[in-house]
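Practice problem 4.
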């Protein structure tokens, strides 16, 4: 039987994901509260390595999801589906509700409507890569320290746990940051920090990845790393929900595209979605109607 998580909250605030940049989908759901909880990487029985994804990711169903803050409508009856194992891009103007929808998925925003995750087996892990990392750049925190803080229960100042050292090394190798593990996070360029954020999203190995503009700070070499990772995730059957402003990249790399400007204006293949007419409607201040 398919494992299924349903998030169906009328208007009650949900607990934040917390310091971790991942969320673990848990158990059978209830219909009254958001059951997506923070993951504690250290509580997992074993980290088998980054390449250990053996089952497809979940199907995501957004059904009439709405969000109102004060008198401002952020999301208006948003309905679309993300197919398992696909790369699904979410595009739209700034302020159109894309990041708010992601926060709703991660349990950080109250909402109305129904949000469900249908897993092919036991509920898995959700990996989250934010658009940027806000921190005091004067902190003496190395790349290894950051990865340890995100991955293990043991305090980072005590060093990497043997349980996670191999997985952390492999993740940093995949994003081309293995040789900068001892560099301070504050001394890295914006693109290098973004690569580190991509690496932390791989531990523990996720079945669903949520990416909030991961290409925004990447240089050309970093973009090549990201595109290679995207291919690896697709081949592994990981479901990817990807917010992106680079429409050219979306056209090349996504399997499906949803246009969001408070409400869904289109949901189609890249060739069908990224037409001049649909993009004009999407990026208009007052979108006319769904296309």
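Answer key:
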């Amino acid at each position: 039987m398919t494992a299924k998580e349903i998030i169906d909250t009328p208007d009650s605030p949900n607990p934040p994901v917390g310091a971790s940049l991942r969320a673990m989908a848990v158990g059978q759901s209830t219909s009254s509260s958001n059951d997506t909880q923070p993951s504690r990487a250290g509580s997992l029985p074993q980290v088998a390595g980054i390449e250990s994804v053996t089952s497809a990711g979940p199907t995501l169903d957004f059904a009439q999801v709405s969000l109102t803050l004060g008198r401002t409508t952020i999301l208006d009856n948003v309905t679309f589906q993300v197919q398992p194992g696909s790369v699904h891009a979410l595009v739209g103007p700034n302020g159109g509700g894309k990041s708010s929808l992601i926060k709703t998925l991660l349990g950080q925003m109250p909402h109305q409507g129904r949000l469900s995750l249908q897993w092919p087996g036991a509920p898995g892990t959700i990996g989250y890569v934010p658009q940027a990392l806000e921190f005091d750049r004067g902190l003496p925190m190395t790349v290894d320290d950051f990865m340890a803080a995100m991955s293990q229960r043991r305090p980072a100042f005590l060093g990497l746990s043997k349980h996670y050292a191999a997985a952390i090394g492999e993740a940093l190798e995949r994003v081309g940051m293995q040789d900068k593990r001892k560099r301070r996070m504050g001394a890295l360029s914006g693109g290098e920090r973004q690569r580190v954020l991509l690496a932390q999203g791989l531990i523990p190995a996720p079945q669903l990845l949520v990416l909030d503009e991961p290409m925004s700070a990447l240089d050309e070499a970093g973009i090549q790393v990201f595109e290679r990772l995207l291919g690896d995730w697709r081949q592994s059957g990981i479901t990817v929900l990807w917010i992106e402003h680079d429409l050219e990249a979306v056209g090349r790399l996504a399997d499906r595209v949803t246009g969001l400007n408070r409400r869904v204006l289109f949901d189609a293949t890249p060739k069908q979605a990224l037409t001049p007419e649909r993009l004009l409607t999407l990026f208009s201040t007052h979108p006319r109607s769904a296309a």
